[in-house]
Amino acid sequence: MSKVAVVGAGTMGNGIAHVFAQHGWDVTLVDVELEALERGLKTISTNIERLVKKGAGSREQGAATLARIATSTKLDSANDVDLVVEAAIENPKIKFEIFAALCRLLPPQTILASNTSSISITELARHTDNPARVIGMHFMNPVPLMPLVEVVRGRLTNDETVRRVVEVVEELKKTPVIVNDSPGFVSNRVLMPMINEAILCVQEGIATAEAVDQVMTLGMKHPLGPLALADLIGLDVCLAILEVMVEGFGDPKYRPARLLKEMVASGRLGRKSGVGFYVYRD
Ligand SMILES: NC(=O)c1ccc[n+]([C@@H]2O[C@H](COP(=O)([O-])OP(=O)(O)OC[C@H]3O[C@@H](n4cnc5c(N)ncnc54)[C@H](O)[C@@H]3O)[C@@H](O)[C@H]2O)c1
Description:
With 282 residues, this protein is α/β, with parallel strands linked by helices. It has helices spanning 11-22, 34-53, 59-67, 92-105, 121-125, 159-171, 187-203, 209-220, 226-233, 235-249, 258-265, and strands at 3-7, 26-30, 69-72, 83-86, 111-114, 134-139, 148-153, 175-180. It folds into 2 domains: 3-180, Rossmann fold (3-Layer(aba) Sandwich), CATH 3.40.50.720; 188-273, N-(1-d-carboxylethyl)-l-norvaline Dehydrogenase, domain 2 (Orthogonal Bundle), CATH 1.10.1040. The chain is built from 11 helices and 8 strands. The radius of gyration is 19 Å and the shape is globular. The chain starts with a strand and ends in a 17-residue tail after the last helix. The structure holds nicotinamide-adenine-dinucleotide.
């Protein structure tokens, strides 16, 4: 396999495109928004420059990585790829439409993977003609730096698809961990309740955001406090994941904090909007 389409050029999509191109894959990066593609390419370019400055690759290698990435606003420009990694917005309806379109467009041997944080892979697969080739490839943020890919096996994903995706993850020099499909998988089922509790501590006036994060960084040795991490992930993404988990488990313990909903409604989305629990100047 050597050709991949990455659908969605936001926080995750541009990182995923970067890592595939870095490892010699031809990448088509697709987004409905032209500006998202431009922003995505700019981020990749900045990250490449940073790597070159750190001595993690030459200028020529960086240029070659960038040259392997084509962009498009049309899904059908990716009709000859071996693998699709869908990283569009965390909205079930939009993802179902993308998967239905992908299976019309691509031959049966093309693997259809989603980077969803929480939406059921089995449910996504139901919107295709061949659920055996649908799988979760859950990269972590920031993609170029994080070693884990949670490989999510849907109820009907076949062994061959799992095997091929594990091989791809290893080729990208990352570590695959295979889990079964369930809302939030393992990563977000464990992480999101912690982030939500951290937000409730601020909402209830128990501590400031800085104090909550300090408790977890200094006291629990977390490299990043839960609120700084929520800002990095995107507060809209955190809210969407918690909503999928409340719905999926039917359990109110995953109900998102009021403060989280208010922050998203007022456009304070974390790093990507410049303000979340913290203010970001660059
Ligand atoms: N942010 C994180 O830390 C993180 C981590 C792991 C997984 N994820 C998952 O990755 C996915 C993307 O998250 P993100 O943080 O990059 O979101 P984002 O909001 O930064 O980017 C989403 C992109 O999808 C594009 N988009 C919307 N509809 C589309 C369509 N029909 N076709 C193509 N592109 C479309 C948007 O224009 C936007 O550029 C989500 O499923 C999210 O749950 C996010």
